[in-house]
Amino acid sequence: MTIWNLGSINADMIYDVPHLPGPGETLSANRLDRFLGGKGANMSVAAARAGTRVAHIGAVGPDGRWAQDRLTEYGVDTRYIAGVEVPTGHAIIAVDAQGENNIILFPGSNHAITPGQLGQALSSAERGDLLVMQNETNLQVEAAEMGRDLGLTVCYAAAPFQADAVKAVLPFLDFLILNEVEAEQLRKVTGQLVTDLDVEHVIVTLGSKGARYYHRGAASDFPAHKVQAVDTTGAGDTFTGYVLAGMDRGMPMAQAISQANRAAALMVTRHGTADVIPDLKEVREAQFD
Q: What is the pTM of this model?
């Protein structure tokens, strides 16, 4: 089976700062690192490192060939990534001493994916494959509708949250993942609790508290492992990639979520994004208190 990821590809510029800057504040950073990132790229790398086949559908600019090469190195099928003239997307990320962050995102080439490119990629998909999207590219609704018509399991990570984008794809979804803030935002714009949604699988991530899984409205809680977090960037994407890989490999959802919790716990102990996502061997061998 294959996970098809209509996903963003970014250069993540991560600044280590003593605290997150406030309005009008000029702040000196202690360090700057550049990582492969974007919610899409992070999820593709996580799923590949979790042991499943991932085909990434996306775009990079003339300055982004290194990112495509990096994805290939990490085991992602990059044949469906287009080279375009629009600059590659990037994110400016500030991370404080407690591991909390804020992010400025420039979409760039992530919004230059064409319908023809999407259709060509998904023409190779097989019934039962997974299709995942995030709100960092164009063509989300087109992909969701196409995925449903092809018999794919259509998955959506509702971040960065935008009410209209989520409402537009909801009718096509089999799986929705969002954090508790996004779940509340969705309730405000739709008037529906997550238990009311006509989506078979819903996961609400709860940060350091773990995750809550709803199967047709019935809830199950999965507590997080206690670790010393140094950087929460990419932890949610790592969790999602591992959950999707577990689904693709036929794991019971409880097992897939438990494994994803372990991966996310390891991820927050590391500085960086896609380049430091743990592989399956590390996740299985990790020791937690």
A: 0.91
Q: How do the domains of the chain map onto residue ranges?
A: 2-277
pLDDT in tens, 200-244: 999 999 988 999 999 988 999 999 999 998 888 899 999 999 999
Question: HSE (CB half, 13 Å, CA atoms) of 28?
Answer: 1
Closest alpha carbon to 158 in 204, 196, 191, 207 = 204
Q: For residues 276 and 234, what is the distance between their CA atoms, to the nearest angstrom?
A: 9
Fold of the domain built from segment(s) 2-277? UDP-N-acetylmuramoyl-L-alanine:D-glutamate ligase (3.40.1190)
C-beta separation of 165 from 135 below 8 A:
yes
| Residue 116 token pair | 């023809």
Average pLDDT over residues 66-93: 95
Between helix 235-248 and helix 253-267 the angle, nearest 10°, is 150
Name the burial class of residue 137, with classes exposed (0-12), middle (13-18) and buried (19+) by CB atoms within 10 angstroms of its CB: buried
Length of the chain: 289
Number of H helices, E strands in the chain: 9, 13
Residue 237 designated active-site: yes
Catalytic residue from among 12, 174, 231, 237: 237
**Surface-to-core class of residue 52, CB atoms within 10 Å of its CB (0-12 exposed, 13-18 middle, 19+ buried):** buried
